[in-house]
Amino acid sequence: MRNILIIGAGRSASSLIQYLLHKSTAEQLHLTIGDLSLELAQRKTNNHPNATAIALDIHNVSQRQAEIQKADIVISMLPAHMHIDVAKDCVTFKKNMVTASYISDAMQSLDEEAKANNLIFMNEIGLDPGIDHMSAMKVIHEIQDKGGKMVLFESFCGGLVAPESDTNLWNYKFTWAPRNVVLAGQGGAAKFIQEGKYKYIPYNKLFRRTEFLEVEGYGRFEGYANRDSLKYRSVYGLDDILTLYRGTIRRVGYSKAWNMFVQLGMTDDTYVLENSETMSYRDFINSFLPYSPTDSVEIKTRIQLGIEQDDIMWDKLLELDLFNPNKIIGLNNATPAQILEHILNASWALEPEDKDMIVMYHKFGYELHGEHKQIDSKMVCIGDDQTYTAMAKTVGLPVAMATLHILNGTIKTPGVQLPIRKEVYEPILKELEDYGVVFKETEMPYIGYNPDKLSGN
């Protein structure tokens, strides 16, 4: 039997573990599933004879190293900042490693050692990052192989609630880490390139600069800019591209409504509110509003945000019960962002029967034989239930597939890497189609810059 050590048995590991267990007999695999919670690890084994659950504390160096030594390959589903100790052990004990996380500077620094030991450290092989890289590089390489020159690349991805479970005015529920949603876009201006010009959107303007997207069968969506769209320009081989933009997908109207929280200051995570444990929802919103001896909190909110009582934006605030004086926050020394997350969790948590949905949308503009052309590539994936969610499938399945390909020697290139080579993305994208992760590519009229017309770009 070939031993796979999986460190971390959280939500994103469900489909990963299910896939490998399903393949375990034919592929002669034994899974060791390690988590701080032995109970959680045991649940994920589903009493399968080819799986062993263990309580694993990665800060226990001797235990961590002992388990890594026993493995043929290591999958780390830990938070990104916790991968590095595992990665260093994998270098020491000459083990290949797979993660879904962005490549950190610390991980990248192991590249030379990994290559010297002929080790594959595959990163960014989840959904975003992961499937976005693979599906984009497939089309980019196809365009380049037929002599085309890329001039535009836009890429959008979003974790949403499935249409049948979309039951609130925000058309949104938390399908992944709520904290990341609350803090989205912070830490600097969004930056991208458009028609050869660098563009920047400061945080306070981010959610009012959106692009509309249409997905057949699912209606309209909107996308707002990711913080840094340029980090993959060289990685994708697009240094000369005129337009490069990456964004996050939401339902139309979400960004305008979210902007109310931004303008009030509720998404700030840099300071603590006094007496937050005894504060009511109503106290919370009132703490961001001017004092008035006569105006109610409701009136002050509408004045501050410039919305009327019959505006859908107002209904969205009311739906969250933000003005309730009897609901107590109950969080000690909490930041505004932490309190907002707490309030939203009460309204936006998925119900047991709810399903989630992943939407990904790429636009490829290119020049071929003097003509401008465009391909749009779209993917929608619906979750099965609250365990095998669309998010768990799209994050976990590529990790599992890459692991098996590395074990079987079909992925050979050593080093710290992300999945942009054909040897990685071709077999994985093909197999993902069997699990409902299917991209539909369509030739479209080119919508980018026309050099024959005057432009105020």
Verbal overview:
The protein is an alpha/beta fold and 457 residues long. Helix content is 32%, strand content 23%. The chain has helices at 14-27, 38-45, 61-70, 83-92, 105-108, 111-116, 131-145, 178-182, 254-264, 281-286, 297-305, 312-319, 336-348, 390-407, 422-432; strands at residues 2-7, 29-35, 51-55, 73-76, 96-99, 120-122, 149-161, 190-194, 197-201, 210-215, 219-225, 243-251, 356-368, 371-382, 415-417, 440-444. The strands form 3 sheets. A 7-stranded parallel β-sheet has the order 3-2-1-4-5-6-15, sandwiched between helices. It has a 7-stranded mixed β-sheet with strand order 10-11-12-7-13-14-16, with helices on one face. It starts with a strand and ends in a 13-residue tail after the last strand.
**Average pLDDT, all residues:** 94
Number of helices: 15
Radius of gyration: 24 Å
Report the sheet with the most strands, covering strand number, pairing sense and barrel closure.
7 strands, parallel
Low-confidence stretches: 450-455
Share of helical residues? 25-40%
Number of distinct beta strands: 16
Overall form? globular
User: What's the arrangement of strands in the largest beta sheet?
Assistant: 3-2-1-4-5-6-15
Query: Oligomeric state of the chains?
Result: single chain
What is the end-to-end distance?
A: 60 Å
Derived from helix and strand composition plus strand pairing, the structural class reads: alpha/beta
Our estimate of the beta-strand percent is 15-25%
